[in-house]
Design goal:
Length: about 250
């Protein structure tokens, strides 16, 4: 991470990583998603778990080389993939209200000490379609990962009934990724764009903790690398290996 990226994340609690996926990769993943998760009727908000099992392009996202350095920097060398799913929305679709915040539950936290940032449960959202400002989708209260007044957020702000200057819906493009800590107050604004929102959410935990109790079964995947196998391990302490082996880290 650059110094500016560290400043930005510490300040706001989220970070946009541009151009993680190429246009060809986005097109391929959208084609696979069309087959794996076809729409049924007039459902404007759809969600499916374990998109990492949809084939090699989705499996690659477990430890995408453009994103993994951020995970290690912000969550530590033993970071693990906790669970994953997708959110697809069409015009008029309603999402979840603003939620989260520091210490709301045991896994939602952000800490800084002596130049090192660490996070509890955190999310990498990969975008398979654009979300311009005003389209809806992911929204947050920048800086709220360090707030002391989570419970003071008004109910009508949480539900997006009343707009506020401190609630932001960042603009992103297909192929971008957005990292945010669950300690950040965040939610899903109603989708207003004509095209479908397509987001893939890969949620990570420090190696010693878990949010989901439904751990990954490695037999559900085909051709996992050793590094991916390490990232799919259940939570553990003690002799848990680092995700990136020392030889690879030294080469990088």
């Amino acid at each position: 991470m650059t110094g500016e990226e560290k400043f930005s994340f510490d300040l706001e609690g989220y970070l946009i990583i541009k151009n993680v996926l190429s246009a060809d990769e986005v097109a391929e993943m959208n084609e696979i998603a069309d087959r794996a998760f076809p729409p049924e009727g007039d459902i404007r908000y759809r969600r499916a778990s374990r998109v990492s099992c949809w084939g090699a392009p989705f499996q690659k996202l477990i430890d995408h080389p453009k994103v993994l350095p951020y995970l290690v920097e912000l969550m530590g060398p033993k970071v693990r993939l906790d669970h994953d799913y997708c959110i697809f929305m069409t015009e008029g679709g309603q999402g979840g209200n603003l939620h989260g915040g520091p210490e709301v539950v045991g896994d939602h936290w952000y800490k800084y000490w002596d130049g090192v940032m660490r996070n509890g449960l955190s999310v990498v959202t990969y975008f398979l379609s654009d979300a311009a400002e005003g389209d809806g989708g992911f929204a947050c209260v920048p800086g709220s990962h360090k707030t002391n007044f989570v419970s003071s957020l008004p109910r009508d702000i949480r539900s997006f009934e009343r707009p506020s200057h401190y609630v932001v819906q960042p603009a992103v493009e297909a192929g971008d990724a957005l990292f945010f800590t669950e300690a950040l107050i965040h939610g899903t604004m109603p989708w207003t764009a004509k095209h479908e929102r397509r987001s893939l959410l890969y949620k990570y935990s420090p190696g010693h903790s878990a949010w989901s109790q439904n751990y990954y079964d490695l037999d559900e995947f085909d051709g996992l690398t050793e590094q991916q196998q390490r990232m799919l391990m259940p939570p553990s302490v003690g002799q848990r290996p680092d995700v990136v082996e020392e030889e690879q880290a030294a080469a990088d």
